[in-house]
Amino acid sequence: MKKVRIDIVSDVVCPWCIIGYKRLEQALSTLSDSLEADLYWHPFELNPAMGEQGQNLKEHLQEKYGTTEEASQSARQTLTQLGHEVGFEFHFSPQMRIYNTRKAHQLLMWASSENKQLELKLKLFHCYFTDNQDISDEKVLIDAAANVGLDSETAKLVLADMTWAESVATTEQQWLEAGINAVPAIIINKKHLISGAQTSELLVSALKQINNL
Fold this sequence. Notes:
Blueprint: E1 2-10, H1 15-30, E2 35-43, E3 55-56, H2 57-65, H3 69-86, E4 97-98, H4 102-113, H5 117-130, H6 138-147, H7 152-160, H8 162-177, E5 185-188, E6 192-195, H9 200-210
Parallel strand pairs: 1-2
Antiparallel strand pairs: 1-5, 3-4, 5-6
Helix pairs in contact: 1-3, 1-9, 4-5, 4-8, 5-6, 6-7
């Protein structure tokens, strides 16, 4: 059994990040007889300057990318179908909002030291895309942490501690300086970059080649 290190740079409000992860999960399942993976999640904020109230998602996409109503609707339908194919539920609505994710990344960084990072990451994707919750809200974040077995009181302290926020910002800057400016970004064994939500077939092929399987 070979071991592989997989670093994933992502944001919890990035729909392609959860699709990319679920496809990776499928690929690793296919190779489970010969390959064992250690996963590490790293922060990336799509909207670091987003205010506390967030912004309507359609309005945000129109302002940031010039996305039309028709294109937005088409993208949501595509994402919903792709989510269905990998076992993830997207519930898009006209009222859906985009939020600042700095505090979410603070909790995720702490969760790594508690060996609960993957569980929390998946829970936050579910909170945002499936339940349409405000993942900049501290109560939502603390409840999510508690749901995966993390201590609520410690979670509160992590959210209030600026050193965690600074650690997130520093880590994000390091990835930017390393050339990561879009997510998801999957790095295999610290040197092989796979950008975007690639198919599980491509990921299986890449993992085999990289690990000489």
